[in-house]
Every structure is written in structure tokens, then in C-alpha cells.
Design brief:
Keywords: Glycosidase, Hydrolase. This protein has about 800 residues and is an alpha+beta fold. Helix content is about 20%, strand content about 30%.
Length: about 800
């Protein structure tokens, strides 16, 4: 007898009527008569978590993304019931839950809608793998804009786009290609000048649709797992980004040298080639702090080994490089070569640390060493073992940083480019398939690497860089944007990627300057350097298959431009270090798109090129060949042209002429920019003084300078200096006051103050209420005056 056993296709399923609810402290559970439970948890007055299950109970609540060190709290939580809905109110918003459909609306206290369900939560049974495909759709009114989602090579404003989150090795990717290496399922919505955020914490393959399929509807869904998202209310975009960054965590402060310029290639070998490269930097006086070794430094691409032919004495070499100011950074990939004579492989095999297929055998795939097995970094025991492997490299040889690549994870010669979906993972005791663990594999590798480098670098700070990442990876690692291409299109992509990553919580990011694949022209390389020095992570990297890509590969003119802009970066190190301090303490992004800077100006909503570096420097790269200038948008306020010191009124588009050795740079009026003298590497010289470039303003403005020992952990014990400089400009007077927090004392004793745009002739100077006698012919305030670093108030009096 033959019967039809085909499974019934049920299509989309929806919650039925809510029949009851319970409240426990900060959470309210709503129960429907078809076994759906919706849990609403108020974490802050402006942050609410929504979890849904269609099976009548919740699975273990576990997330790699959430920073468990963060504390939350709210001021108001009131739950009331009406005939057709429930109302949950905080001091910032209220939530309406419809009884009949469990649909949700979130509103300002005056009743203005912020985010309302369209279909709301629904799901579809996944017969192939089990579980559900979980879905959410929201109403999206006309004029709403969307930002975020991390590493996406597309327009900054995501309106009208559909995007996919599945960490993928995309060599030589192109504009609008999906997906890429990183997964950050967090977006910012902006409607009627009010911002909110949604973080969909689901590690399965997921999708976001911003009114692409259906006008007026925004939706997000995942191939499995739980519908689990966090709603964050602004109304300022800065509030949303900061709250999300606190939720998923911030890094520790990096050593200052990591903010210098770095040089990399696939590959520098043998040792003589490495020495040739580093010597040339010093000969040409182009500052550089780090040299990178790609996979060819290893013995047959085996991790934690050194090629006896190319690097016979790595400890001596690393020490000699260090004497010349170069820190050595090496690559480590996840693939462990199958080789019974290889100690790392043997130990992992004996301890059963490799990922397995569903029916038992180890996951095997081809990468650089050939056939490999892969550690399960979602197993805490494996992470501890992996961390222990860095002892020789860091503590004994003296390597200063580790670079994790190929950790999407990438597998060669298979159509999917990665592990089969049936591979099993420990997932910190929440056993699962690769469908769930794929997007966090790279983060957990970087996490294990971070703990190893930190352990053996102590008392210095660790430095780790990763290609693949999931939300929260910023707690352990910096990142770069993968295998880009030497094209003008990719210069545009790099600019947008860095802005997006910064407002997506992963600020310490950069691109391969000049492009990894293919060969840039001299002009393209110069323009990329001019942009790259304003990205938090600054590294030239290229594929050796396409020619040389050191600054001297493009002729004298490019050497001079590279030197000029890298020197500018080194001068701005105290400004950049201060940006980092504000990022790790306050969750403030280091790069700010114009829409972040002024969300109320609709002209900023679709700008991609210009961005704010820190809080007060406006950068606009040249993104096209043969340009002698460009049109750009100056946001609200008044801005000084950095090159000419001309004061220009903002909130308008204008033409800015630039030479080949310039890009448009503007400084917000009232800014005080700290600068160090040029040095060839961090720590080369003791600074005789700190320079402050003061940009006059009628009115008040605050600027900040963070300093510490530049490495080590004394800063965590209060031995740091955080100075607030307040400028107060008047028609015939200028006041600059200084307030300091922390016990750190810099080595320099003097500060040089240079005032730009002073509208009056100087008649007198007072320091801490004491008049200073000076000869007008000898002291020029626009050239700079030198005063004691511990002054409280500088008063410049005009005629």
C-alpha cells in the first residue's frame, strides 16, 4: 500500500490571541492560545528586549554578543491592561501589545509612533533542518532612513536595500555585493528627525529588507533560532549608537603604537626582505610602527611555526626590528594541517578539540597548508588551549600582535566557501550545528587569540586583528575589511565601510590601503593614503601577485605625499588617542557620518563622502582621478579650512579646490587640537612639549586630551590624564581654561599654544591672573607661545 507522506506546507504562522500574562521584576510574559510566548524585558527606559517562542518554552538564554559586564536599570515600569491591548510604559516610551494578534507598537510619551509592527512576529516551519524560520515585519513610513549593519559595501543610507548576514570570504568583492566577512545585525532607523535602533541578536543566516520588497515595510528574518531583538530609543542617533555599543561592549585601550602606520604584504620573506622594507622606511623618514608577516613566515603554513629557511632565528630578528622601532605582527589562521609530526595537530587530536561532522568524523577542508582540521572555538576548553599556544610567540620571541585571517571560516575548493552546515559545535555548552555557529566562529577565534596574547604580553596591552566578526567582537579585537581591490570604486567603498563600522560599534577598523588585489596607480595610492590616515586602523596591505605597494613604489611625488599625511597622523596621535578613550568609556564612535553629526539636516541623510574624524575635524576624501578639487557639504556651524585657515560658513554645499598633496580638511571653530612632534615611531622621542592649535570662536567650545604611559595598565588604576580645555572667545578677549582628571604626569613640562583666526591684535596676556610682560616683536600668538603645562587659565587681551 502506498500512501502520501508529503509534509503539509503550512506557510507563515502567526501568534493567536493573548490569553494571559505574568510579570516578574523587569519582564512581562504574554501567552497566546497557540503556544506562543512573547517576553518583553525593560532593560533601560530607552531599551526594551523582545523574545518570541512558538514552542511554549524558551531555550537557554545565551548570547556571545551581549557584554555581561554591563549593568542596566530603569526609572519607570508600569503595566496596564485595557479591553483590547496591554500597555507597558517607561519614562521614555510606551509599548502597546494588541491582545488579538500580539502585534507591538512603540510610541513616544506624547503618542507619536516610533516603531510599529506590520505583520509583526511570524514564522515558518523549517522541514529540512527542523526548528523555525523566524520573521518580523515593521511599518516604515515615507521618508524613513536606515543606517548601520556593519561591513556593507553599499550606500550609507540603506533605504530600499535587502542585505544578508552570513560571514563569507569574498575575495575581490565589488560594490553592493552580499554578503561579506562580518555580521552586525544592528540598524538605526531615522524618521521625522528621531532615531531608534534594532539589534536582532540571532547568529543564524539572517536578512534585512528596508522597503525593498514592499514599499512601506521593513523586515528582518533568520533561517533558525529565536526571534530575539532589542529596541533602542534615541531620539538622537548618538544615544542609539552609544546604548548599542554599551550593550555589546567596548574594547580595552590599545597601546598607542597600534594607532600608528603599519605596513603589510602577502608576503614579506625572507628575513633580508623584511629588513630591506623596514630600513627603507627609516631611510625615507616615513613614520611606521609595525611590520606584518603573512603566511609564508611559517613552516609549510603550519600555525605557530617558523620557516627554518626564511626565518631561522625569529627571536633575534624580532628583537632587532624592535630596536629600530618596529613591532612585529604575525598572521594565524584557523586551519591546522593534518600532520602527525606536527605538535599542535597532535595535541588537538588527542584532546578531541576539532570540529566534527554530524555523523562523527572530523571536519576536513583545504586551506593554505593543504588538508586541515579546525578547532571548535565555541568550546571554552578549546579557547583556553588555543590561548596557551601563544606563549612562545609572544613571551619568548617577542611578537607584539596577532592577525586572524580566513576565520569566516573560509574553506577552499568548495562551492559554499565554508564548513558544511551539519558540522557540530559546543557553543559554550549549547550544542548546535554550523548553521548557528558559523557567524560567530571568527569572533570566538579572535576571543581565544586575544586572551592568549593578553596573557603573554602582560604587562603590555594586547593587539589582535580579525577579518570575520559578529556583534561584540570589538571587545577582543580590531578588524579590517578584507580582500578589497585597487580601484577608485573601492576607495569609495572603504570610506563608507569605515563610517558604517564606526556607528555599528566596531570602531577600530581599517581597509587595505591601496587595495589588496590588483595594482593601484600612483594617484589612487596617494588618495587612499590621504583617506586611510583618518581611519582608526591604518595599514597598507597588498597581494604580492600584483606588484609592489610600498610608498616608494610610486615615485618621489607619492613618497612626499605619503610622508606628509603619515606625519600628520603621528602629529594627531593625542587627538586620535583621545577619540579612543571616549569610545571605550562613553561608547562614542570615532568616525561620525554627517547624519550622525546633524540628523535634523535632511541634506546629511544621503551623504556618503564627508565624515567627522573624532568630534571636530571634517574629512572629505578625493574619490575620483584627475581631481583638482571637489564639491562637498559642510554641516552646520563655522569651519576653518585646515590648509588655508579661511573661516567658512556651514550648512551648505561648496566647491573646495585642492592640490594633489591635499584633500579637503576642515576644523570646527572653537576647537583645540592637540599635536605631538613628528616621530618615526611611537616612543622614539620624549616630547619636549604638547602643541595646542586653537581655532578662535565667538562663544564657548570644549576640547579634550587624553594621555597615559601609552601602554600597560596603569591607566586602569587612575594613572592617566584627561584634560578638558574650554575656549571662551569674545570680541576683544580669549579665555582658555584647563581642568585635569587623573594622576598621570606627562614627561613634557610646557605647552605651546598657537591661535588661528584671532580677530584682534594682542595687547596683553595673563596666565592664572598674572600679567605676562612680552615684546610684541618677539611673541606672535599665531606662531605660538610656550607656557607651563599646568596652567589653569590663559587670558589673551586685545586692543
Amino acid at each position: 500500500m502506498i500512501i502520501n507522506t508529503e509534509l503539509e506546507y503550512k506557510g507563515d504562522l502567526f501568534p493567536a490571541t493573548i490569553t494571559s500574562f505574568t510579570k516578574e521584576v523587569d519582564s512581562i510574559d504574554f501567552y497566546t492560545d497557540n503556544n506562543v510566548i512573547m517576553r518583553v524585558t525593560v532593560l533601560r527606559d530607552s531599551m526594551i528586549r523582545f523574545r518570541f517562542t512558538a514552542k511554549g518554552y524558551f531555550s537557554n538564554d545565551f548570547s556571545y554578543a551581549i557584554d555581561k559586564r554591563q549593568s542596566h536599570g530603569y526609572n519607570v515600569l508600569e503595566v496596564t491592561e485595557a479591553d483590547d491591548h496591554f500597555k507597558i510604559q517607561t519614562s521614555k516610551v510606551y509599548v502597546i501589545v494588541q491582545k488579538q494578534s500580539a502585534r507591538v507598537g512603540i510610541y513616544e510619551l506624547d503618542g507619536s509612533p516610533i516603531l510599529e509592527d506590520e505583520l509583526g512576529f511570524h514564522w515558518e516551519e523549517c522541514y529540512e533542518f527542523g526548528g523555525n524560520i523566524v520573521k518580523m515585519s515593521k511599518m516604515s513610513p515615507e521618508g524613513e532612513s536606515f543606517y548601520g549593519l556593519g561591513d556593507k559595501p553599499t550606500h550609507l543610507n540603506l533605504k530600499g536595500k535587502r542585505l544578508e548576514n552570513w560571514a563569507t570570504d569574498q575575495y575581490a568583492f565589488h560594490k553592493d555585493q552580499e554578503p561579506l566577512y562580518k555580521v552586525v545585525p544592528f540598524y538605526i532607523g531615522l524618521r521625522e528627525n528621531k532615531a531608534y535602533g534594532v539589534f536582532f541578536d540571532n547568529t543564524f543566516r539572517s536578512f534585512f529588507d528596508f522597503s525593498h520588497e514592499r514599499k512601506g515595510v521593513t523586515s528582518f528574518w533568520a533561517d533558525g533560532g529565536e526571534m530575539n531583538y532589542y529596541f533602542i530609543y534615541g531620539p538622537k542617533m548618538s544615544d542609539v549608537v552609544t546604548t548599542y555599543t554599551h550593550l555589546t561592549g567596548k574594547p580595552e585601550l590599545p597601546p598607542l603604537w597600534t594607532l600608528g602606520y603599519h605596513q603589510c604584504k602577502w608576503s614579506y620573506y625572507p628575513e633580508s626582505k623584511v629588513k630591506e622594507i623596514t630600513s627603507k622606511f627609516r631611510e625615507l623618514q616615513i613614520p611606521c610602527d609595525a611590520i606584518y608577516l603573512d603566511i609564508d613566515y611559517m613552516e609549510g603554513f603550519r600555525c605557530f611555526t617558523w620557516s627554518k629557511e626564511y626565518f631561522p632565528e625569529p627571536k633575534r630578528m624580532v628583537q632587532e626590528l624592535a630596536k629600530d622601532g618596529f613591532k612585529t605582527v604575525v598572521i594565524i589562521d584557523p586551519g591546522i594541517k593534518i600532520d602527525n609530526d606536527y605538535s599542535v595537530y597532535k595535541e588537538a587530536l588527542e584532546k578531541d578539540y576539532f570540529c566534527k561532522r554530524a555523523d562523527g568524523p572530523y571536519m576536513k577542508g583545504k586551506v593554505w597548508p593543504g588538508e586541515c582540521n579546525f578547532p571548535d572555538y565555541t568550546n571554552p576548553e578549546v579557547r583556553e588551549w588555543w590561548a596557551s599556544l601563544f606563549k612562545e610567540m609572544i613571551a619568548e620571541i617577542g611578537v607584539k600582535g596577532v592577525w586572524n585571517d580566513m576565520n569566516e571560516p573560509a574553506v577552499m575548493e568548495v562551492p559554499t566557501k565554508t564548513f558544511p552546515l551539519d558540522v557540530r559545535h559546543n557553543y559554550d555548552g549549547n550544542n548546535c550545528s554550523h548553521r548557528k555557529a558559523h557567524n560567530v566562529y571568527g569572533t570566538q577565534m579572535a576571543r581565544a587569540t586575544y586572551h592568549g596574547v593578553k596573557r603573554f604580553a602582560f604587562p603590555k596591552r594586547p593587539f589582535v586583528i580579525t577579518r570575520s566578526a559578529y556583534s561584540g567582537a570589538q571587545r577582543y579585537t580590531s578588524s579590517w575589511t578584507g580582500d578589497n581591490v585597487a580601484t577608485w570604486e573601492h576607495l569609495w567603498i572603504a570610506n563608507v565601510q569605515m563610517q558604517r563600522m564606526s556607528i555599528s560599534g566596531m570602531g577600530f577598523t581599517g581597509s587595505d590601503i591601496g587595495g589588496f588585489a590588483e595594482q593601484p596607480s600612483a594617484e589612487l595610492y596617494a588618495r587612499w593614503i590621504q583617506l586611510g590616515v583618518f581611519h582608526p586602523f591604518c595599514r597598507t596591505h597588498s597581494s604580492g601577485h600584483h606588484g609592489d605597494q610600498e610608498p616608494w613604489s610610486f615615485g618621489e611625488e607619492v613618497i612626499d605625499i605619503t610622508r606628509k599625511f603619515v606625519e600628520l597622523r603621528y602629529q594627531l596621535l593625542p587627538y586620535l588617542y583621545t577619540m579612543f578613550w571616549q569610545y571605550i568609556n562613553d561608547g562614542v564612535p570615532m568616525l561620525k557620518p554627517l547624519v550622525y553629526f546633524d540628523q535634523e539636516d535632511p541634506q546629511t541623510h544621503y551623504r556618503t563622502d564627508e565624515f567627522i574624524f573624532g568630534n571636530q575635524i571634517l574629512v572629505c576624501p578625493i574619490l575620483e582621478p584627475n581631481a583638482q578639487g571637489r564639491r562637498m557639504y559642510l554641516p552646520q556651524g563655522n569651519w576653518y579650512n585646515y590648509w588655508t585657515n579661511e573661516l567658512v560658513k556651514g550648512k551648505r554645499e561648496l566647491w573646495v579646490a585642492t592640490d594633489f598633496d591635499q584633500i579637503p580638511l576642515f576644523v570646527k571653530e572653537g576647537t583645540i587640537i592637540p599635536k605631538y612632534p613628528v616621530q618615526q615611531y611611537v616612543g622614539q622621542i620624549e616630547h619636549p612639549e604638547l602643541s595646542l592649535e586653537v581655532y578662535f570662536k565667538l562663544g564657548k567650545e570644549k576640547s579634550f586630551v587624553y594621555e597615559d604611559a601609552q601602554d600597560g595598565y596603569d591607566y586602569s588604576k587612575g594613572r592617566y590624564s584627561y584634560k578638558t580645555f574650554t575656549l571662551n572667545g569674545k570680541e576683544k578677549e580669549l579665555f582658555i581654561t584647563q581642568h585635569k582628571e587623573g594622576s598621570f604626569e606627562a614627561n613634557y613640562s610646557m605647552i605651546k599654544i598657537k591661535v588661528i583666526g584671532l580677530p584682534f591684535e594682542v595687547k596683553g596676556i595673563e596666565i592664572d591672573n598674572e600679567k605676562i610682560l612680552f615684546d610684541k616683536n618677539e611673541i606672535n600668538i599665531t606662531e605660538g607661545i610656550v607656557i607651563d603645562k599646568d596652567f589653569s587659565e590663559l587670558h589673551i587681551i586685545g586692543v
